[in-house]
Amino acid sequence: MKKTATALALGALFLAPALAQLDAAKSSVVAVSKQMGVPVDGKFKRFTAQVSFDPARPAEGKASVEIDIASFDLGAEDFNRETVKPEWFNAAKFPKATFVTSAIKPAGAGKFEAAGKLTIKGITRDVVAPVSFKVEAGQQVFEGVLPIKRLQFNIGEGEWKDTSTVADDVQIRFRIVTAKK
């Protein structure tokens, strides 16, 4: 009996989809905000992702993304130095932001909703990210835009809570491409 249970457990392990790693060269995570009404893009240069997904069985899928906050790049060193300070991302105290799925469900042809926990600056919120899915050259590609409110994560404290200069609405645009197996 014990051998049968062990064999079944090992069989299930080998049949389960493996976690695919990120193809960093083809992937991106960009935060788009508005400063005085003008869109501003900031790109996270370093992040990792692990994905296990079969479009025929989305409920069994899972994904996690970990972002290196200090890698945020607005295209100018003086701005980059500001964003890591305590008023903004506080990268010294909160070096990582994470998203971990809790459920994935279909939302139309090639479209899915990934529900999960988004943690930024030590604050965790439940979010639902609309995701489009396709396969390109044998790689899984996940793209979407996740709208958030920066003040819900204490991004922009003190004088920066004023949303007339930097808007509260932020769009996190992502393209996650898995490495070929």
TrEMBL record:
* Name of the protein described by the UniProt record: Polyisoprenoid-binding protein
Q: Which residues form the Lipid/polyisoprenoid-binding YceI-like domain?
A: 19-179
Gene3D superfamilies membership: Lipid/polyisoprenoid-binding, YceI-like
Q: Which SMART domains match?
A: YceI
Where does the UniProt annotation place the signal sequence?
A: 1-20
- Please name one Pfam family that this protein belongs to: YceI
Q: Which domain of life is it from?
A: Bacteria
* Keyword hit for Iron: no
Alphabetized, the UniProt keywords read: Signal
